[in-house]
Amino acid sequence: MSLLLTEKEERNFDPNNPIDIIAYKRRAKYILSMPYLAYGNADLFPGIPKEMRAIQNFIRVDEQVNKEGAVCRKLIHDKEAIIQNITTGTDYPEFLTNLFKRIDIMEPFDNEWLWFYDWRPLQSGGFDMALEEDNVTTHQTPPGQSVKYYGTSGSKYRVYAKWYSTGVAVDRRLLYDRDFYTIEKDLMRQKQASDRKKAEVAYTLIEAITAGNYPAGRDIVWQAPDPTLMATSDSKYTMSRDAETLNKAAETLVEENKNRPGVLTNSDKTAFHVLVPHQLTKRINNALNYTVQEYAGSTKATGNYTFVLHTTTMLTSSTDYYVGIPKGETVGGSLLNFTRFSEFNKDLFADENAAWESNAFNLGNTEQFTRCKSA
Predict the structure, then answer these.
(1) Contact at 8 Å (CB) between 338 and 194?
(2) Burial degree of 220 (CB within 10 A; 0-12, 13-18, 19+)
(3) Cβ pair 259, 334 in contact under 8 A
(4) Alpha carbon distance 164, 175 (integer Å)
(5) Class assignment of domain 105-375?
(6) What is the b/e burial string over 288-301, where b = at least 16 CB atoms within 10 angstroms of the residue's CB?
């Protein structure tokens, strides 16, 4: 450190003070940007410590002369990195750099939608989805006859990745005031805005297929209780009707997807995922655990199917919920994950943090979801 600071400055240097760290890094940037001093040029810059020649020589020791006499330099990234660690990137102190990393990997705001989407990294700005017709048939083949081959039929379409950005400017005066709590909250809001946008797009697609373009008559109305003569005053009345509605949704999904390859396994092995607004969480959970007979080991009213409950705050309706078969043709991916780029703006005296990402979403089979009514 004495190479960059005077004796007095070194005595007063506080490694925990972000302002001292910033000043130290700037001093290093200035000195290391000077012309090479190892060959007698130090006298041109009397304010630079002589020891800096040793540092500059250290990062150039691999220079050599080839047969033609020209000077060439090897790529010595490891040695240069030793110097660059204190001269590149933002002027944030180390604890803020660690804060970036911690926030960027924190639990997403709402990631229940990932249970429904087959999410994968993208290799380009989109992907193709095929609308294939299921025309493959197995035939009995007696001796002497050959196999009958079927080609791919149907059409395909392109799903493009969209670009999203979120900007936050962190006022440098917060560093001077040591107001690290506000800095952390600002950066957390940036990450949460990114998570919220992905969830919003994913849920909007699920809700959209149940709107104007949804096949007529596909809504699952609130089913009658079992038994049908159950009194409305019975404490089990609502649970029974909700349970029967869930059963009807699963039955509908089985019938509509039983011949679609890659969507449905056995109805008793396929998990039907239930996406509910938070207002209905307790009610639907009660329906999933409802038993007709009140004794230990009694079969649940929804026992013919396996349901997995997911709660979100981002559905537009508080009275409708959705039952779906995950993955299949519900596909998405990321071309660029949430990535933050930082730059200091001297006019605003703020560090501008621009976060970019690129994602693609597709819901190719409307028959993988049903919308259920609760009244």
Answers:
(1) yes
(2) buried
(3) no
(4) 29
(5) alpha beta
(6) bebbeeeeeeeeeb
Strand partners, 118: 331
Spans of all domains in the chain? 7-88, 105-375
Q: Tell whether omega for the bond before 261 is within 30 degrees of 0, i.e. cis.
A: no
Is residue 214 predicted with pLDDT exceeding 70?
no
Residue type at position 317: S
> Per residue in 317-367, pLDDT tens?
999 999 999 988 899 999 999 998 888 888 999 989 899 999 999 988 888
Determine the Cα–Cα distance for residues 108 and 314; give it in Å rounded to an integer.
14
Give the tens place of pLDDT for each residue, 177-198. Answer: 878 788 888 888 898 899 999 9
Q: pLDDT for 229-256, tens place per residue?
A: 999 999 999 999 999 999 999 999 988 8
The two three-digit tokens of residue 345, written as one number: 């703006």
Q: Per the structure block, which two tokens stand in for 34?
A: 């000077």
CA 120/CA 161 separation, integer angstroms: 12
- As a whole number of angstroms, the distance between CA 249 and CA 246 comes to 5
The CA-based dihedral angle spanning residues 213, 217, 220, 223, taken in that order and rounded to the nearest 10 degrees: 160
* Model pTM above 0.70: no
